[in-house]
Design goal:
The chain is of the alpha+beta class and 208 residues long. It has 8 helices and 5 strands. Strand 1 and strand 2 form a beta hairpin. Helix 4 crosses helix 8. The protein is elongated, with a radius of gyration of 26 Å.
C-alpha cells in the first residue's frame, strides 16, 4: 500500500459521506391503492362501504361499523379473539380482507343476541361463569356456536345416543375450540357452558 492509494481511499470515503441520502419519493398517484366498494350483510343488515382494499374484515367491523365486540388480540390469527361467523363458518377476521367477503353474511357477537334477548350460548357463559377478563369471550362464544353446528352437521339424523355422546364429547369440543385462547384459563367453565347448550339440542340437530 502506498501513500497515494491511502489518500485516494480517504478522498473516496469523504465523497461518499458528503453525498446526501436518497429521499423516499411518493408513489405515482396511479399506483396508490384506491378505495373499493364492498357490500355485506352484517348481523342481518345490508351495509355498503368504500374501503381501502387492504382493510381487514376485523378493522372494517371495528373501525368502520363500530362493532367493537369483536376484539383485536394478536392480529396474527393465533388467539381467536376476533372470531366471527361468515356464511355459517367461523373465521379469524384479522386474517382476511373485507373485500374478499363482498356479498357475504357476517355475524358478530352483537348479532347473536342483545342484553335483553341473549343467545343460549351467551346465557350459558353467564350461568357457568365462562369468562374472567372477558376479552376473549366474544370470539369464544362465536366459535362455540359454530362448533356445535359443525358437529351437528356431521351427525346422521338417525344417530344413536352413544354416537351423539361421542360427537358432542368434552374432548371433541376441546379440540375444536383449541384455536380460541383464554389467557385467564377459564377453560373448564367454557366447556361446561358449551356442554350445557349442546345438552339442550336433543339429537344435536337443533339450533343452539
Amino acid at each position: 500500500m502506498t501513500r497515494r492509494s491511502v489518500l485516494a481511499a480517504g478522498a473516496a470515503t469523504a465523497t461518499l459521506a458528503a453525498t446526501p441520502p436518497l429521499e423516499a419519493k411518493p408513489l405515482p398517484k396511479a399506483d396508490q391503492p384506491s378505495s373499493v366498494a364492498v357490500r355485506l350483510k352484517v348481523n342481518g343488515k345490508e351495509r355498503s362501504l368504500s374501503l381501502d382494499p387492504r382493510t381487514t374484515l376485523l378493522d372494517m367491523l371495528r373501525e368502520h361499523l363500530r362493532l367493537t365486540g369483536t376484539k383485536k388480540g394478536c392480529d396474527h390469527g393465533q388467539c381467536g379473539a376476533c372470531t366471527v361467523i361468515v356464511e355459517g363458518r367461523r373465521i379469524n377476521s384479522c386474517l382476511t380482507l373485507a373485500v374478499m367477503h363482498d356479498g357475504d353474511a357476517v355475524t358478530t357477537i352483537e348479532g347473536l343476541g342483545t342484553p335483553d334477548d341473549l343467545h343460549p350460548m351467551q346465557k350459558a357463559f353467564v350461568v357457568h361463569d365462562g369468562y374472567q377478563c372477558g376479552y376473549c369471550t366474544p370470539g369464544q362464544i362465536c366459535s362455540a356456536v359454530a362448533v356445535l353446528e359443525e358437529i351437528a352437521a356431521g351427525v346422521p339424523s338417525h344417530a344413536s345416543p352413544d354416537l351423539l355422546a361421542i360427537a358432542f364429547s368434552d374432548d371433541e369440543v376441546r379440540e375444536r375450540m383449541s384455536g380460541n385462547i383464554c389467557r385467564c384459563a377459564a377453560y373448564p367453565n367454557i366447556i361446561a357452558a358449551i356442554r350445557d347448550v349442546a345438552g339442550g339440542r336433543g339429537t344435536g340437530k337443533g339450533k343452539a
